[in-house]
Each structure stands twice: as structure tokens, then as C-alpha cells.
Amino acid sequence: MTKQTAGIHHITAFVRNAQENVDFYAGVLGLRLVKKTINFDAPEVYHLYFGDQQGSPGTIITFFPWANSRKGRVGGGQVGITSYVVPTGSLPFWEARLQKFNVAYETTVRFGETYLQFEDRDGLKLEIVEREAGAPSQWAFGGVPVDKAIKGFGGAVLYSTAPDKTAHLLEHVMGLRKVGQEGVYARYQSTADIGNVIDLPVQAVPHGTGGAGTVHHIAWRAADDAEHALWREHVVQSGFHPTPIVDRQYFHALYFREEGGILFEIATDPPGFARDEAPDALGEEIKLPEWFEEHRGQIEALLPPIQVRVLEEDAQ
């Protein structure tokens, strides 16, 4: 069986403070909080989703804010850097914006592209790159206008403890195409316009440790439930051991760990985030799966209040 994912569906990470998380990704980066729900396995913890105006696949970063979690260490077996793509010509805007919010950054070049690399408040490694490809975001917030807004993921840098095996997986299981090698990186590309570029260090990266400021997993796109079932069969035939398919309300998911230590998910594009909220009201209410509704009062009492707000630097 030959399969080919369109690209990244979402990336999920751990942080500590829920309001700081909202302030950074909505307030500083200008993303939309498209869903405010809970960790289905630990309902006392939020699960927050940020993306474009509708939370399109390829734009979604999600977080579990655990207030007392340990600090993680970014390393092998993780997504090392999450890449965001912005419209061509907008990198000076983002450089000025990071300065405005006192976010330390450095500029680097990889495969002929200039990246602004920085960290969020918990140390999660991020970068911004300009590209022509990808539909412009229609979401503007705070000091981020539509014409400068993040389109979605540019891709990711994967830190593998066994890069040869991860490279084989990317090409022969996930269906990405190797498009180049430069210095310490090999580059792979999928078919989508965003969330489509993976850079892989060709040398093994020492193991990281999970915790705040690290990525838990990277999810790849399946077009629908029928294709998702074929993906599960394909992953099994390729020698991996995926979980059963799980209902995550806004997509269906299966998980497996590749040989370089990175936790992969395959997630369906539908049904999306408007299944339980109107498109113009996404992220406004805490949404619970039906099996938790009877406990709503207890759950909401345990969750700290959060709000999407224009930050002082943009209000001046």
C-alpha cells in the first residue's frame, strides 16, 4: 500500500500557565483561540487550540497547560522547532513585533530561507519564515493585521535519536519527498501548501525529556475517516503499532511512536471546530464531550479563568 499525507494537521505541546499561553499565542502571535476544551484523560486541565480563522488543518497548535508541571528539555524524540509561515515581505514586521514584546530572537538561514527563531514563555522553540505558498489568514487580532498574519505552519524540525530510520519513515510510510540536503539538515516535503516542510538533522539528537516547553506529538493529515482507516492498516503493514482510532471530537486520531522516538498521530481533517460552536463564536465557551457534561460544574471550578485580550503593548 502506498500512502501520502498532505502534511501536518496539528502540533501539541505542554506549558504551565494557561493565561500566559493565551497571551502569547493570541496576544503576541495573533492566532485565534478556536477551541477551549479539556484534556479528555485529565479533565482538570485545559486543552487549548489556536489556529487561523477556522482552525484549518495545518494551522493548529494545541496545548495542555499543567500549572505544576516540570520543565522539559527539548531533544531527541521530539519536534525540536515548530515553524510558522507568514506572507512574503512581512518578516520585518515580525522582527519589530518580537522586539516590541521583548521576545529574544535570532536570525538564521536554512535552505536559502531566513528564519526568526525564538521561544515562548515556557521555552517551546518556534520560528517564523516567509513563503508565497499558502492561503492568507483572514484573522486579525491586536496589533497583527490580516496582511501580516501567520498563515499556519511552515513545517517543523524533527529531532530524532535515529535519523536514518526517521528519514525512511518520512519517505516510505508518510509519503514525503526528500527535496534536498544542506549541512546538518535533510529536507522533506509533502503536498499541501502549508505544514509541508520537514527539516531533519542528519545526526542523532540526544534524548529530550517531556515537560513544559516541549512538544508532546506531531499529527499528520488524513482526508476523511475512510482514508484514516487505510492509514491505520498502512502503519501496521509498515511494522509499527498504532493505537485504536480515538474520537477527539474535532477529528479522529491514531497514535504510534516512530523509531527515532517521536510520537506521531494521524488525524482526520473533518469534522473540524465548528461542529459544536458557530464559526464566529469559536473558542468563546468551554466545550466538553457529552460524557463529561454531567460533571461540568466540578470541571469548570477546577479550571483557571482565561481570556483572549489585547495586550498592553498593542493597546498603547
Report on the structure:
There is one protein chain. By secondary structure, the chain is an alpha+beta fold. Helices cover 17% and strands 34% of the residues. It is built from 6 helices and 16 strands. It has helices at 18-28, 91-100, 163-172, 225-237, 296-302, 312-315; strands spanning 8-15, 32-39, 42-51, 60-65, 78-86, 105-110, 113-119, 125-130, 152-159, 177-182, 185-189, 197-201, 215-222, 246-247, 252-257, 263-268. The longest helix has 13 residues, at 225-237.
The class by helix and strand makeup works out as alpha+beta
Q: Please give the count of helices.
A: 6
- Looking at CATH, the homologous superfamily is 2,3-Dihydroxybiphenyl 1,2-Dioxygenase, domain 1
User: What sequence of helices (H) and strands (E) makes up the elements?
Assistant: EHEEEEHEEEEHEEEEHEEEHH
Low-confidence stretches: none
Helix content: 10-25%
CATH topology: 2,3-Dihydroxybiphenyl 1,2-Dioxygenase, domain 1
CATH top level assignment? Alpha Beta
- The second-level CATH architecture is Roll
> What's the mean pLDDT score?
97
Strand arrangement, major sheet: 2-3-4-1-13-16-15-14
| Number of E-state strands | 16
Pfam family, one: Glyoxalase
Organism: Paenibacillus curdlanolyticus YK9
GO molecular function: dioxygenase activity
InterPro entries: Extradiol_RC_dioxygenase, Glyas_Bleomycin-R_OHBP_Dase, Glyas_Fos-R_dOase_dom, VOC_core
